[in-house]
Amino acid sequence: MRLIDFLDKGASLGAEAPCLVMHERSLSYRQVQAHSYKVGRALARDGVRPGDKVAILSSNDPISFACVFAISRAGAVWTPINPRNEAAENQEILDAFDCSCLFYQKAYAPLVERIRGSLPKLKTVVCIDGEDGAVPSLERWSAGLEDTPWSAEPNDDLAMIVGTGGTTGRPKGVMLTGRNLETMSALTLMGYPFPRGEPPVYLALPPLTHAAGVLCFPLLCLGAKIVIMPHADLPEFLALISEHQVTHTFLPPTVIYMLLAKPDLEKANLGSLECFWYGAAPMSAEKLEEAIKRIGPVMAQLFGQSEAPMFISMMAPADHFRADGTIAKEKLASAGRISPLVTAAIMDDGGNLLAPGERGEIVVRSSLVMAGYYKNEEATREVSRFGWHHTGDVGYLDDDGFLFIVDRAKDMIITGGFNVYSSEVEQTLMQHPQVQDCAIVGLPDDKWGERVTAVLLLKPGATVDPDEVKAFVKARIGSVKSPKQVEIWPDLPRSKVGKVLKKEIRSKLLAAS
Length: 513
What we know:
four-stranded parallel β-sheet, 3 domains, single chain
């Protein structure tokens, strides 16, 4: 399927139904289709050919997201650009991925001005929401063109290129095809609950450039209403669930922790929710149990990565419970079962597949897996060793087929000759009643080689004794895994999608030592 096929399928179920909604603005499926025809024609008029790369630089916005479908109509390839990136990183992405056209919101005009002169491949620049000097507005740029059905034939199945790894060198471009997104959509619709009779309502708070945006595609197939939040605002998030009778939403664990820290959470009207996805980072089993009790039996895990989007494994709401209806606490630390259209295994460094219970790298085979990295054959070969896609995550499968992610391979700490997986220590720390969030990193140590170091974000108004924290962990998982150093910070550095940045934490700790 092309990206426009998801939109057109939803339109076939009700063209006048609301499609993209934000505040008082609502675009119907017919209006989003018309937009895609008109803007798609404008792209073709300005020389954008099938297979060309077209970028969008925008915060969450209905018109900006509608442009994704215009790009697909023109047979071009969508390249989402995160506005929270540094200017140099976005310049690198636009250049490395050969982008010939850029749509941007006026709020990011200064960023575009800084980098545009260094991007000779960028031939067409359009401001989505107004005139920007010599740069035309989207409305003026596409004026006079028909908004009736039209589509260019694509060169191949490439649908989008997602940037990854820009902080550790030249960014890699994950090439996702229509087949990848079709597989992802099939898994979504197979594995999670959806209301019968009425279309679902999906609330998108995180950036649409990432998982929250990709999740829109399977929901559009069902004629869903997509309610878009331009900024992260948890009180508004709760209010919108009630106002729009939201059935589906997604948040990363760190934002869910912030939600759970709100004492008035129980006052919110969340009865319409059927599926509350969490993912993008491991979630504390302790916090997950709290979420099930306070938000409802609707929590639904997803585990994937840019290279195999969203659903390597899945854990539907029902999988969080035993047959007798009690919470399956023994499974809450897992990433669920391997998805139906995915084959996954655990592999050692020599390419040997391991038995249940043995730890190694999680590897995957599926039509979910990307076509490769854009113009980077070496990186593609490296991640495809032994005929499997290598996730870079360390984990194991239990006897029931549940996948447990132990750590990112690069985050494993070797202390006193023992392997310590940071996520195991973090899961233990999250059981502490005063801890809201945390990170475990390894620092150089003359005695231990690396010392396990904990950085804590406490709940509002909480205090804690570092020695008591060490004893708390030691009593539960032993002295080897207990932190040798405990730091308490007012906040933790995070990525654009809320992931804790351990590299920054480690650098800050090293600079202070």
